[in-house]
Write a structure and sequence with these properties.
Length: 333
Amino acid sequence: MRIYLSRRLLQFVAVLWGAATLNFFIPRLAPGNPVRDQLQQMASQGGALQLGIEDMVRSYDQQFGLDQPLWLQYLRYLGSVLRLDFGYSLSQYPVHVITLIEAALPWTIGLLLASTFLAFGIGTLLGAVIGWTRSPRALRFLVLPLLVFSSIPYYLLGLVLVYALAVTHPFFPLSGGYSVSAIPSLSLPFVLDIVHHALLPAFSIVLAGMGFWGLGMRGMMVTTEGEDYMLFAEAKGLKGIRILLRYAVRNAILPQFTSLAIALGHIVSGSVIVEVVFAFPGIGSLLVKAISGSDFFLIYGIVFIIILAISVATLLIDLVYPLIDPRIAYRSA
């Protein structure tokens, strides 16, 4: 067990280093100078003459360390990553990158955490009931809606919901995290306003996720049929509900937990297109703005936080899975 744990920790560190390295070099493959692009954009929007812009570019390059050799920038970048210090945002200077991430992360986690658990719970329950051979035959017609929902991208569902429930019948707001006139505070009216704005994007994610989890659970329920422990339970004369919960669902749900852990790791990455469609102030919208503005340091920070969350979730499920399923044990070779 100790050997396996050490090996997994080394793999964890290697994955983070490799991802951080790619995270550093890939944005730099894009042509142009991000500082010059930002200054030219600001000058064009403000109508100012571009006098002395090269002097400003050199000054900001020195400020951000972009005038240093690439290998030195890389070493400084690795040292900063260890401290979760990603420097200043190029597009929103002098705001720190970590400040922008801390402001956007709660919106994304709040939206996707609730949506993921709702989709997992509803979909797994429906999949278990549909896949159970003793269930009423009428419930099997639910397979088609689950298949449809799992096939349609959630951002497309979001556009349909916006048209149906925000444009044609304005039950929900079109976009945003809260009303423009609302004053952010820890008050019940403001919290309800946030929930009201989050319901529509959450509904689109739940519908699409429900189909995915439901079909996955149904497939696993089918595989449990004919297993020795199922035949033994039936031979003992146990009640159908007990066989369903204690024998079928208990074994079929294990792969679902693995997928759930990985999905929870992806929560930090946000639902980029849904957040853009609904103008939701989450990490996905922030990443799109960073990419469009060639904000290297903001891209570094967001992508590394995403990789870190997914790696930690994968490591935890590897360590916890033997506790969930006693049939699995890690032994040294």
